[in-house]
Amino acid sequence: MGSTKKLINFGVIGYVIGALLLINGFLMALPLGFSFYLNDGVHMSFIMASGITFAVGFALRYFLRKHKEAEIKRREGFIIVTFSWVAMTLFGTLPYVLSESIPNFSNAFFETMSGFSTTGASILDNIEEMPHSILFWRSMTQWIGGMGIIVLTIAILPLLGIGGMELFVNEAPGPTKDKIHPRIKETAKRLWVIYLFLTVCEMIVLMFCGMNFFDAINHSLTTTSTGGFSTKQASIAHFNSPLIEGVIIFFMFLAGTNFTLIYFGFKGKLKRIWKNDEFKWYLMAVVGFILILTPAVFLDVENMNNGFSLMESFRYVSFQVVSIITTTGYASGIFTEWGVFATFIFFLLLFSGASAGSTSGGMKIVRIVILIKNGFLEFKRRIHPNAVVPVHLNGKSIHNKVVYNLLAFLFLYLFMFVIGSIIMAAMPGVDLLTAISSVATSLGNVGPGIASVDPSQSFAHLPDAGKWVLSFLMLFGRLELFTVAVLFSPYFWRVN
User: Measuring CA to CA, how many Å separate 1 from each of 4, 7, 41?
Assistant: First the structure.
């Protein structure tokens, strides 16, 4: 008997991507409201961009409709996840290019990938001069990408055996007993409701705090998604309002929390939250770094010369710690001017990320916690080599396979960081600190870095080749590394 060849069904892949482009085309039309109302002169660009995107999506759905009922197998799932992000980004550049707001395609692709991946790194040096509808689309890309990654990590990736390296089986994603709902469609629906609710709530509160409607809706879109795009070149520092900063801190922290826990909070199941180890470590990390950095910034000579009081130090540090840990990337100040110690700590935080099952990027707190616990338990295993000493999370033992997967994830993360840094350092005009920080912030989907890509500067000065490298790293980081990396494996394409 001959073996059955398991060929990849590219038809069903195109059919699904077509659906995503239809959605993208519809959402691309939403900025038309601002364009017509404010008469910013770019409405035709959005009409054309939306029309092209919608037409391609419709064509894919129509000509590949025979694959409508086809089963999406694991390999098709990997390709759909990766190429849907690429397709959304490619078509998402159209409003920038057609309106000539960002005429250079490399810059437009970088800005769009930074949006959909919720990284927040920008090439714009004239944000206030951009048409309002373009700024709204820029914010929308982050909001779409933020919810996309939530649905992806909680509802889709676990079925492919990826994403949280099977940690999500114990907590947030996928149809298991602890999940929001046993069906993917219902899970996604509930997540959308929570995401939309948080976005609207923040917008209303920001307006009460003094923001105008346009700034409030844009910042609520990019806070809930932990994206960090702002309508101001100086980011949140432009508003110079402790009240606005406090509101954004609160919503950034929520956006960095596992959305399943937020759902449990709405249901009144607060014990489920307090018993969650990752949430406790997340909270302790935020509080701990604020307590460490506040006196360090206050006692720094440069800031003393700038007149930073202890309360001002606490205010700026609190905002920046939450912004970086959640990978939002807003800036209420230039943290690279707060001394070497603070700069180094913020650089380390570029790697952390917040909770699994949130919109944040980075390695995620839960992975770091398990690796730390496993490291300490290794001492005990050395003394008692025959003893079975499992790692525990939320009162349950974790299978060794999960720990091995986490070690593989850590290796790949550091490997990508090192290789990316080497490539960027080889670029003309890129110094070493800029190279390593631009890679770290792109791979972690954070936004600002240090050196010449700190919060006061954009990424515009980097070579076009460097922008493509960083865009690729944003995609890698956003899709949990292995989702993209597996496509480069010869085993993936082998027919068996």
Answer: 9, 18, 66
**pLDDT given for residue 301 in this prediction:** 58
Which residues have a Cβ under 8 Å from the Cβ of 291 and sit 6 or more positions away?
Answer: none
- Model confidence at 4: pLDDT above 80: no
Per-residue confidence (pLDDT) for residue 246, from 0 to 100: 97
Question: What is the DSSP secondary-structure string of 252-280?
Answer: HHHHTS-HHHHHHHHTT-HHHHHT-HHHH
Pairing assessment for the beta strands 391-393 and 396-398 based on DSSP bridges: antiparallel
Is pLDDT of 112 > 90? yes
Residue 436, token pair as written in the block: 């390593």
Give the separation between CA 217 and CA 195, rounded to whole angstroms: 14
Tell me which residue has tokens 């086809």.
70
Least confident window among 29-33, 126-130, 395-399: 395-399
245 within 8 A of 237, measured Cβ to Cβ:
no
Burial of 411 (0-12, 13-18, 19+ CB in 10 A): exposed
Q: What tokens does 281 get?
A: 């470590």
* Cα 127 from Cα 134, distance rounded (Å): 10
**30: how many CB neighbours lie within 10 A of its CB?**
14
Residue type, 121: A
Contacts of 473 (CB under 8 A, 6+ apart): 416, 420, 439, 442, 443
Residues 290-308: tens digit of each pLDDT = 999 999 998 885 555 556 8
Cα–Cα distance, 85 to 475 (Å, whole number): 8
DSSP 338: S
| Contact call for residues 219 and 229 (beta carbons, < 8 A) | no
Q: Which range among 51-60, 106-115, 264-273 shows the weakest confidence by mean pLDDT?
A: 264-273
Residue type, position 297, single letter: V
CB 323 within 8 A of CB 228: yes
For 210, other C-beta atoms within 10 Å of its C-beta total 12
Whether the per-residue pLDDT at 251 is higher than 60: the answer is yes
Instruction: Please check whether residue 173 is in contact with residue 64, taking contact to mean a CB–CB distance below 8 angstroms.
Output: no
CB 361 within 8 A of CB 446: yes
Which element (helix H / strand E) includes 87?
Answer: helix 74-92
Cβ neighbors of 2 (< 8 A, separation 6 or more) are none
Nearest alpha-carbon partner for 471 in 93, 152, 75, 24: 93
DSSP-derived secondary structure for 210-253: T--HHHHHHHHHHHHTT----SSTTGGGGT--HHHHHHHHHHHH
Report the chain's mean pLDDT, rounded to a whole number: 87
| Residue 303, pLDDT score | 57
Q: What pTM was estimated for this model as a whole? A: 0.91
What is the residue type of 158?
A: P
Query: Residue 155 above 60 pLDDT?
Result: no
